[in-house]
Amino acid sequence: MINARAEVLPLPAPAGLAPVEWRTSAASVPYSEALAGMEARVEAIIAGRAGELVWLLEHPPLYTTGTGTRTEDLSGSGRFPLHQSGRGGRLTYHGPGQRVAYAMLDLRERGPDIRRYVATLEEWIIRTLARFDIAGERREDRVGVWVKRPGKSAGAEDKIAAIGIRVKKWVSLHGISLNVAPDLSHYEGILPCGVSEPAWGVTSLHDLGMNATMAEVDAALRREFEGLFGPSAIVEGNPHAHLDELPAHRG
Prior knowledge:
The chain is of the alpha/beta class. It is 22% helix and 25% strand.
């Protein structure tokens, strides 16, 4: 069943906001470091000491729990380190070959509407996949973005991207993860995001026959982000270093 969020209009990109900082970490980032970085940056955005940020990275193989994680999700989760994330959603996997995009956006300026924000994140993923001729879709009873797999079995669908967010004083943390070319066997033994039906699985661009590089995916993500959220500006360095020295957020 098509998700009702498909009818929700994306958040508008307000005029006059400074470009969103766009950072990419070349090296794998430990989850605890990423979490600390997000927390510090969001506090700085709330206080007006820093602007919005999108941070692209990869994690070493690990699992993260969300606020909706259930006991049955954790079966088999001893394979990799398990982290509590504080985001919404259930248990999920992160690892090499998966592009994680953490979006620290000021919803006080963009519109304090979580439903529309989630719909905009979904639209961001769907438009990015379309750049690679992949039809991503929403579902009413499942989170994330899905791809039909009629060649596998009747009604087969695989999840290609996950969404999990947290909002603190109307500034967002966490974001999206898109499977580019991860080891899909790392999902075995757990219920990723609560996916339990035999006809539902997990896929990636590589699994679908699209051998896109991470750089190509990043370029598509940025292009489609700007079409929905407004301009971005590439910056380098640690996303949470020298926060007190950053210019004040311009609204």
